[in-house]
Write a structure and sequence with these properties.
Structural class: alpha+beta
Strand order of the largest sheet: 6-5-9-3-2-12-15-14
Number of strands: 31
Number of helices: 26
Bound molecules: ligand BES, zinc ion
Radius of gyration: 28 Å
Length: about 900
């Protein structure tokens, strides 16, 4: 624990560093308990900083062993060293070197920040402020240094030693019992991109030749024996590198690019220069152990971390307030990559579903903050859906607003102008203003104003004048610290469709060539001329802005869009809108409209008949009923998750019953012979087949049971086997459920990543007994509170994906998660704080649950010695 309470850091108080560190030489001797770190910093006063001030280096739980200035040991009076900082009282006003020796304990490092061990492998995680847990440093992203890293270890302990950059020297010591390597990274970088790895790892690799003909050695390092499971990741890396050359003109810039998979990792993966470190669940995949969704995640995250090499590493962030500059932009880039590699419409639907489930929820709760926050107490708590997903949406809007050509020119200018700098959002936007000749100052509000804008649209047809008018009004609800809001610039892609679904060729001057209308005021109107009959408006095509749209179309108009709109996203959205409306009404009023449900089921049946086989991946998305969180979000207040769950099940049963014959036929038609392939087309077929199995089970559990068991037993891949197990666990139940769960546990006894699915599935069962089941699973020998993946699977899934049990009326779910958070906070605050964000909807619950949630939160807040991470989240959640 840090000894003092953290101070609030404010964007407006940014000051350049008083010192620079152009070079650092590290000499690290790895040992399980006593790793010795010698850092030689080349320091100099920063002309842009203050002169004549002490040098204050950051530390975190550090112990100083020795310190020397320009080679001479320093007297104790010259400095002050504590666990969280080192102060040199009177540093020279010229360049000088500081040699600092510290000692750290990788084995005892349970926070998994800084240098730690995962299954015996030494590894590091330095973003955002982990480097200061290795040595005293100016641990801020605007201090860029060239790193040379010598790593020494016992050969038996760590036969493989990896660092950033290129390998420049290797050698033997103690007759070969020990060895060392020297890595040199020529690109100046901030400390958060430093990494090293040491351990017994196996490698697969290939050579990538860049567009300009340079050879790059690619390596993926995994636990020995798992090499085969890394081939998909290596392939995804090669495709990412090629794509970034083709689409963004970005080439790789070192001779080596390594990826290492480790089992204990707080996050998904990390973009350290030339040495990405990954949570092994985002590297390892085989048909028998990974689902189609896993393959998709691996592809996206490999791409994401690779793309950071330019957006994040070559151009980094001036300070952590600019986090979206690298994360939002890089998410945008990985989304574009996945859209090019797979189905763009299906990807877009997935992005929007995730955005609504995670970011809209965040934006509507106590943790709401702008894409670029203006203050933080603990930066780890700002790696959020808002910074990432909304940050990506802002880039997407920018592209929609200025058009693809100006966007491409702006990116080129950004790469050219900001290369090797620590940049800001302003620097970024200036490139696009220049490239497009547009004033982007109003657009910039997206970065500083929190909250999800509501966009209300009404249409009015004038048969006399043959005109159609669309009225737009926007408003953004208040968020913590921002009581009043200004209008934002909303690019709205739209079009008109006639009663048969054909595009209406009406004239409207204010639409650009791509059908985009830009709403820049609180309200505005559009008029279409030469409209022969009342049209159906298709608004916010492709989800062109992250807003909540209210547009009161009749169910029959929505059905026209579902069947015919040229925009696939709005086709999908039309079905979702009908279902959401029905579910919200049923939840709030208590009356379930059978006719509306029947009409929707009929439309889905017709849709499936017409195109289920042609685009099964899209069809699977159309069939999916909106999630419970989304419905809760629409209801907004006095939420009762049990009611939502019941009405949603009822609609699903209704759809299942109506579609059963067709779904059974589709299951046959979509059966794919031959060996498993993770490609998007095959995955789409499996997705629809498994959605069909789910519906058949909901409609008639008894009849579906043999199907479920047969698929479970016969599956030759994890996607189908786990889909069957999920239906057994969540729908058909009974003795079969326990039998299949036990069979799965035994079959994958030695596969922790597969057992994570097993933990997660059981944590998501929406039944009374789930909490008791979880308590029992905590005792399973495969479970460990020390492993973030296990914790997220069992406890995270319960808190974030089992709304009826987490929000149980008696408060038991809240108490359970609160206990887990306080326990975990002692060892891994970062993961504990993430779990705690499950409480962010507590105020929207009905009064009984609200009180129970408050009690659980107050219970956490009152505990002595909370970490800054958990203290910050609990404080803001209760505010
Ligand atoms: N830079 C982050 C990793 C990170 C996050 C480090 C938070 C420290 C604190 C990395 O690029 C990242 O964004 N990873 C994501 C996955 C990505 C595909 C969105 C993650 O780890 O969840
Ligand atoms: Zn990232």
């Amino acid at each position: 624990m840090r000894t003092d309470t953290p101070q609030t850091v404010r964007l407006e108080e940014y000051r350049p560093s008083d010192f620079l560190i152009p070079r650092i030489a590290l000499d690290i001797v790895l040992a399980p308990r006593e790793t010795r770190v010698r850092a030689t910093l080349s320091l100099e006063p920063n002309p842009a900083g203050r002169a004549g001030v002490p040098l204050v280096l950051d530390g975190d739980e550090l112990a100083l062993v020795s310190i020397a200035l320009d080679g001479a040991p320093l007297p104790e009076s010259a400095y002050e060293a504590g666990p969280d900082r080192l102060i040199l009282r009177e540093p020279p006003a010229r360049p000088f070197t500081l040699a600092i020796e510290t000692q750290v304990d990788p084995t005892g490092n349970t926070k998994l920040m800084g240098l730690y061990r995962s299954q015996g492998v030494y590894c590091t995680q330095c973003e955002a402020e982990g480097f200061r847990r290795i040595t005293y440093f100016l641990d801020r992203p605007d201090v860029l240094s060239v790193y040379e890293t010598r790593i020494e270890a016992a050969r038996a302990d760590a036969p493989v030693l990896l660092g950033n950059g290129n390998l420049v020297e290797t050698g033997e010591l103690a007759g070969g019992e020990r060895h060392y390597v020297v890595w040199h990274d020529p690109h100046p970088k901030p400390s958060y991109l430093f990494a090293l790895v040491g351990g017994a790892l196996a490698r697969i690799g290939s050579t990538f030749t860049t567009a300009s003909g340079r050879a790059v050695a690619l390596g993926v390092y995994v636990e020995p024996g798992k090499e085969e499971r890394a081939t998909y990741a290596l392939d995804a890396l090669e495709r990412s590198m090629r794509w970034d050359e083709r689409v963004f003109g970005r080439e790789y810039d070192l001779d080596v690019f390594n990826i290492v998979a480790v089992s204990d990792f707080n996050m998904g993966a990390m973009e350290n220069k030339g040495l990405n470190i990954f949570n092994d669940k985002y590297v390892l995949a085989s048909p028998e152990t990974a689902t189609d969704a896993d393959y998709g995640h691996i592809e996206a995250i490999i791409a994401h971390e690779y793309f950071h090499n330019w957006t994040g590493n070559r151009i980094t962030c001036r300070d952590w307030f600019q986090l979206c500059l690298k994360e939002g932009l890089t998410v945008f880039r990985d989304q574009e990559f996945s859209s090019d590699e797979r189905s763009r419409p299906v990807q877009r639907i997935g992005q929007v579903r995730a955005l609504r489930a995670r970011q809209f929820t965040e934006d509507a709760g106590p943790l709401a903050h702008p894409v670029r926050p203006s203050a933080y107490r603990e930066i780890n708590n700002f790696y959020t859906a808002t910074v990432y997903e909304k940050g990506a949406e802002v880039i997407r809007m920018l592209k929609t607003l200025i058009g693809p050509d100006a966007f491409a020119r702006g990116m080129d200018l950004f790469f050219e102008r900001c290369d090797n700098t620590a940049a800001t959002v302003e620097d970024f936007l200036a490139c696009f203003a220049e490239a497009s000749g547009r004033d982007l100052s109003a657009f910039a509000l997206w970065y500083s104003q929190a909250g999800t804008p509501r966009l209300a649209v009404t249409g009015l047809y004038d048969s006399q004048a043959q005109t159609y008018r669309l009225d737009f009004a926007q408003s953004t609800p208040a968020t913590p610290g921002q009581p009043t809001k200004a209008p934002v610039v909303v690019p709205i892609r739209l079009g008109l469709v006639d009663a048969d679904g054909a595009p209406v060729a009406a004239r409207c001057e204010r639409l650009d060539a791509h059908g985009v209308f830009v709403l820049a005021e609180a309200s505005d109107s559009l008029v279409f001329e030469n409209v022969p009959a009342p049209p159906v408006p298709s608004v916010l095509r492709g989800f062109s802005a992250p807003v909540r749209l209210s547009l009161d179309l009749s169910d029959s108009d929505l059905l026209v869009l579902l069947r015919h709109d040229e925009d696939p996203f709005n086709r999908w959205q039309a079905g979702q809108t009908i279902a959401t409306r029905l579910l919200v009404r049923a939840s709030v009023s208590g009356t379930f409209c059978e006719e509306a449900a029947e009409a929707l089921a009929g439309a889905l049946d017709a849709f499936l008949a017409a195109e289920g086989e042609a685009d099964p991946a899209f069809a699977a998305q159309v069939l999916a009923v909106p999630g419970e969180t989304e419905i809760a979000q629409e209801i907004g207040e006095n939420v009762d998750p049990d009611v939502i769950h019941r009405v949603r099940d009822r609609l699903r049963a209704r759809i299942g019953a109506r579609l059963a014959p067709r779904l059974a036929a589709l299951r046959e038609a979509l059966e794919t012979p031959g060996p498993y392939s993770p490609d998007a087309r095959s995955a789409g077929r499996r997705a629809l087949r498994n959605a069909a199995l789910d519906y058949l089970a909901v409609a008639d559990p008894e009849a579906a049971r043999p199907l479920v068991v047969a698929q479970y037993e016969a599956a030759d891949n994890m996607t189908d086997r786990f889909a069957a197990l999920s239906v057994a666990a969540l729908v058909t139940g009974g003795d079969e459920r326990e039998r299949l769960l036990a069979s799965f546990r035994q079959r994958y006894a030695g596969e922790p990543l597969v057992l994570d699915k097993w933990f997660a599935l059981q944590a998501s069962i929406p039944e009374d007994g789930t909490l008791a089941r979880i308590e029992a699973l905590r005792g399973d020998e495969a479970f460990s509170m020390a492993n973030p993946n296990r914790v997220r699977s069992l406890i995270g899934t319960f808190a974030l994906a089992n709304p009826t049990r987490f929000h149980a009326a008696d408060g038991a779910g809240y108490r359970f998660v609160a206990d887990a958070v306080t326990t975990l906070d002692r060892t891994n605050p970062q993961v504990a704080a993430r779990l705690l964000t499950a409480f962010n909807t507590w105020r929207s619950m009905e009064p009984g649950r609200r009180n129970a949630a408050r009690e659980a939160l107050v219970g956490i807040a009152e505990r002595p010695s909370l970490s800054p991470d958990v203290g910050d989240i609990v404080g803001r959640t209760l505010e």
